[in-house]
Amino acid sequence: MADLWGADGTAQIAMPGDNGDWTNYDNFLQALFTAIKQNNMTPGLDFEIWNEPDLNNVFWQRDEAQYLQMWGHAYSRIRSGLSGVPIVGPCSSSQPSLSNNWYINYYPFIKSNNSVPNYYCWHEETSGDDIANSVAGHKALISKYGLPTKPIIINEYALPEEQVPGAAAWFISRLERYNVTGLRGNWASHYSLHDYLGNMLGKPDATEDCQDQSCVTSTGYWGNGEYNVYKYYYKNMTGSRVATTGSPDGLFDIYATRNGAAANTVKMLCGSRLSDNTWDILVTNLDAVGLPPSGTINIHSYQFNYGAGTFDNVHVVDQGVFPHQYTNNQLVFFVSPNQTTGYAFELVP
């Protein structure tokens, strides 16, 4: 709703509740509710009350106290005007923790105001953000203030430089492990904001800021390197999640699934967070998929490269099938990604 209000961070504008006056905001909400109902937009709709309200003087251009008043004001009107539509929030740029003063004010307010969102929401889009830490911080806060457990949505994640195959696999692994819904951030602007699927597709004559008709009308889309990771994740990582643990340095992570009791259903997707290094991958309890305690297992490897840039046409590299010896019901093999590559591994008995 912040964008609809006009708070896009580019200009200083009036804010809801200025000088204690809510008239314009109430009129805005009523017009919005009417339009949503008239156009049958409630199925699948989530309501984000304001975008990144903790960014001082950017999207929310007043103090936190006025934001909290606005939150409570909007919450009650959404509940009455659009009954049943989930509310998500606060969708902050920073992450919840016991040391985050903004959250130390927000969480007690929503408890006392009886305005707890259906989904807790924040962003992971600054260098060093880690879902593992922010989920732990969130749990500590809701425990401290006696708030209910609700699903979590990270509805913006990954810096522009992290929108590469390896980091995409890293974020996927984190989101899956902590059972968090994620929405990849869209940093596109100008023409590209309206094309290229959030800069994961390219096409002939693709440019960031299209200035002529050729790039507007051209078709024949292809996926870039990051797109290939999400495509593999969607189409191949089926069945049940397998328990995984990221590397101790926090820079490498892996997501794994199996679709039944057979070894050939085991698939692993992994990558680093913009780091080139070598990490060992340890697979334990191989007997759970019908393998003997020792022997040889073949691994089919795929490499996801980034290419020459955002709109580069990149294909998945099939690295072939290679045998690996294993003992004591566990397998160890290594992977050495560069700062952008991701990998998928499939067991082939």
Q: TL;DR of this structure?
A:
The chain is α/β, with parallel strands linked by helices and 349 residues long. Helix content is 28%, strand content 24%. It folds into 2 domains: 2-225, TIM Barrel (Alpha-Beta Barrel), CATH 3.20.20.80; 238-348, Immunoglobulin-like.
Write up what this structure looks like.
It is a single chain. 28% of the residues lie in helices and 24% in strands. The chain has helices spanning 2-5, 23-38, 64-81, 101-112, 131-145, 165-177, 196-199, 213-217, 225-236, and strands at residues 47-48, 87-92, 119-124, 152-157, 181-184, 201-202, 222-223, 240-242, 252-258, 267-272, 279-284, 295-304, 317-326, 330-335, 342-348. It has 9 helices and 15 strands. The protein is α/β, with parallel strands linked by helices and 349 residues long. It is globular and about 75 Å long. The protein has 2 domains: 2-225, TIM Barrel (Alpha-Beta Barrel); 238-348, Sandwich (Immunoglobulin-like).
The total of helices stands at 9
When the domains are counted, the total is 2
Secondary structure category? alpha/beta
Measure the end-to-end span: 53 Å
CATH class of the largest domain: Alpha Beta
CATH architecture of the largest domain: Alpha-Beta Barrel
Question: How confident is the prediction overall: mean pLDDT?
Answer: 96
Helix content percent band: 25-40%
Oligomer designation: single chain
Largest sheet: 6 strands, antiparallel
For the secondary structure, the number of strands is: 15
CATH superfamily of the largest domain: Glycosidases
- The neighbouring-strand order within the major sheet is 8-9-10-15-12-13
Poorly predicted parts: none
Order of helices and strands: HHEHEHEHEHEHEHEHEEEEEEEE
